[in-house]
Amino acid sequence: MMASPLKLLLLAAVLLAACASSAHAGEEEVHEVKTAGVEAPEAEPPAPEEHDTAGHESDSDEDSHEDDHDDDHSWSYDGEAGPEKWSHLGYSQCSGQRQSPINVVTNRVIRRHFKPIVFENFNQIPEEMNMTNNFHSAKATLDWERTPKISSGGLPGEYRVINFHFHWGRMDYRGSEHTIDGESYPLEMHIVSQNTKYDELSEALQHPDGLAVMGIMFEVSRANNRAMKRLEPALRRIVKGGASVSVDEPPRLQDLMPWNTNDFYRYDGSLTTPNCNEVVTWTIFLETVKITQKQLELFRALKKNPAPIGRNYRPPQARYGRSVYLSQPEEEEVETIGFAGKTAAVRSGAPALTAGPLAALLTSPLAMRLLF
Ligand SMILES: [Zn+2]
């Protein structure tokens, strides 16, 4: 069939856009800016979880942000010890009014102009990384020459990274803990950081500013995610609950993160696993990271002896009037701010922020269907 003039025009524009952003071609394939919904105030989301008063119907589970409970078998993600029962199992904080995750309702967020998050040492390769199946999740613990830290960005302090881990589901349409207008993602990564003013995690867990967690949403793609590929061998070796292995070639933290860290949601919440401590300043990035179906299946294959972990997301919790902020830089600021671990040239290549409606159209699923 002959290509229509419209298709040819779109194809030419796409090729131009691809050339323009070739400065970071190596990684562009694994990142995508998600803006849909943010500018659509009329779109009332289905928000099945937006029950501010009913709250607490949970059907989720989660891994532990908290080292103390890594091998705790007293709670799970379904059945008698499922999320809706956690507060009855002795984890009283799980029924509090500052719980996580939440469903972000984009037409109710408050626009707030936070300074960019400052990332330190996110571009170094860890000296050592261990990946553990802790019966609830796949969790990476790391040793660094210089510990990665985050600050500014509206965070109530400086925070050092202590681990990262993942949440997933059995099917692609569920898996993330946070949802955006009721929409789930197949995988959510949490990078957990501890306020540097507290020496011990146990101390940080007692204070409302104790932890900061960055949530990163993944989308399935055929594009190869090279950073995630470095985790593949370790994931294959921790199928059994309790297994822990060293990652031979650990990725840099920044390579597991989205390009655009300037656009994020922010709210005060909790750990999403018992003890559900209400000590977390949450940052949820709008831009997603890509993962292949094959890589996603490696998470789904993890077991808690003998059954698969299956799913390890806690459902969204009631907001109880908490504010959720959306921080986005002004257009003219995009060129001068950004990921401290990346170069200015890369930063200025953030195409979806600077290229406007045409680029948004060209990278939309509709355009892709038209073209191919
Ligand atoms: Zn988590």
UniProtKB/TrEMBL annotation:
Annotated spans, Disordered: 30-79
Keyword terms, alphabetized: Glycoprotein, Lyase, Metal-binding, Signal, Zinc
Residues annotated as signal peptide: 1-25
Keyword Metal-binding: yes
Comp. bias regions, Acidic residues: 59-70
EC numbers, comma separated: 4.2.1.1
Basic and acidic residues: compositionally biased ranges: 48-58
Catalytic activity of the protein: hydrogencarbonate + H(+) = CO2 + H2O
Presence of keyword Zinc: yes
Pfam families linked: Carb_anhydrase
Cross-referenced InterPro entries: CA_dom (IPR001148), CA_dom_sf (IPR036398), Carbonic_anhydrase_a-class (IPR023561), Carbonic_anhydrase_a-class_CS (IPR018338)
Name the record gives this protein: Carbonic anhydrase
Known function: Reversible hydration of carbon dioxide.
Listed Gene3D superfamilies: Alpha carbonic anhydrase (3.10.200.10)
Protein family (similarity comment): Belongs to the alpha-carbonic anhydrase family.
Alpha-carbonic anhydrase domain: residues covered: 73-328
Species for this entry: Amphibalanus amphitrite (Striped barnacle)
